[in-house]
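hi got a favour to ask and not much time before my train. below you get a single protein, a line of residues and a line of whole numbers that encode the local backbone shape. could you go over both lines and see whether the tokens make sense for that sequence. a few lines back from you is plenty, here it is:
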Amino acid sequence: MMTENELIEPNPLNQQDSVILRSYAAVVDGLAALIGEHCEIVLHALDDLNKSAIKIANGENTGRQVGSPITDLALRMLRDIEGSERNFSRAYFTRAKSGTLMKSITVAIRNGDNRIIGLLCININLDAPFSQVLQAFIPDDQAKQAASSVNFASDVEELVDQTVERTVEEVNADKTVSNNTKNRQIVMALYDKGIFDIKDAIHRVASRLNISKHTVYLYVRQRKTEEAES
């Protein structure tokens, strides 16, 4: 009797496919760092289902490691994705061999030809002690002090305007900056924040500071020169 693995056609990966899959390794580590030890993230390559797991974070939740085979449920989720317009499965519940209850979701990874070449499986251990889960989301005192405000703007114009206003406030609060150099300091701080990577940001900054675009360009060039010399 054929297994579900044997029903899947061979799916060789080319060099570009491999590059795409390797780029997801950082996603695995990033999600694990964000969510905590109670969340297992597995990156599967679909070229060899007998050892499909090429990257795992927090594998102790299910006892898996790199080189582990794909699961039958992950294959069913792959079928679910292929038969829908989504690039991810519905959320589902599973039990690991140890009996641990997991809530999971499977995300498809496609190549340039829109072919699914890999899966990103996210499994949350629902039996983990609540204190462990909570600890992953509670910042310590050092993290609280280092926390940065974020501009959750609705569009790029609002993002630029909010960032400019916040930077103006920061520079105005700095007593070591003289009135004659405030605009220069504001522009350089905005450059360091990457705001000038946004189209038309220079025009909006110049308008807010009541200076010419040429002056903004001048301050940006000066900042670039300082960077090159440091």
About this structure: Residues 102 and 125 are 5 Å apart (CA to CA). DSSP finds ten helices and five strands in the chain. Strands lie at 39-45, 53-57, 92-95, 101-110, 116-125. The first strand starts at residue 39 and ends at 45.
